[in-house]
Amino acid sequence: MLADIRETPQTREFRELIFDLYGFTPEAQEHIRRNSRIVVNEADPVKAGYWYADKRIVYLTSFGHEAAVHELSHVWWHDLRLKDRTLREELVRDLVRVSDMDPQEEPKNAPAIKFSLEYVYGIPERGWKGMLANAHYNDGPMPQNVHHLTPEDFEDRVNDWEIYAGFSSWTMGRFRDGPRHLPEFMWRYFEPQFKGIIKAVPYYEGGHF
Question: Residue 21 to residues 5, 72, 123, 157, 171: CA-CA distances in angstroms?
């Protein structure tokens, strides 16, 4: 399937549009251009996006903005997480830290708290255990204690790459303000990729999905 689909001037132009609209930093733009190709297959009946790390391909089934930001964020995080194990572990621990916050005491952070709770503990009514039991994209065993994650948890259970890309597309790069802003201690993970200022109306405010 992938062998028959090529990056085209149209898909490269779309990538540049996403970079511009959602405030990708110059460093992130250059890294993503240099380390990936982007293809769009609108004939694919499954509307989604994928990052094929082994082939360095961002595969999209539409020109949707949310999916593009999500998958391009995978490209950026992929090499960072491989180079810096501490960084990816700190991201996960700070995710848990957000989930521990009280929305009554932190009403401005209530959306981020709710989102983090779902990532940490899953959505039981939908049969999903969350990102701490999703390292192999199937619900495995939860860590025994989310506040004391072990090396085994990080190796076999925690899906840090989807946590990062998930936050990226949840905020659409607008992580400092707006209805989906993140607590300030989370900003350091996203500042290298996003300027934090966007030109588009994000999908969660009625903009292009």
Answer: 26, 13, 31, 34, 13
For residue 10 the two structure tokens come to: 């149209």
Phi-psi bin for 173: left (phi > 0), alpha (psi -120 to 50), beta?
Answer: left
Structure tokens at 180: 């989906």
Q: Are residues 65 and 98 in the same domain?
A: no
pLDDT tens digits along 69-83? 999 999 999 999 999
Confidence class of residue 209 from pLDDT cuts 50, 70 and 90? confident
Q: What are phi and psi of 59, to 5 degrees?
A: -110, 120
Residues 128 and 181 both lie in one domain: yes
| 208: in domain | no
Q: Is the pLDDT of residue 1 over 70?
A: no
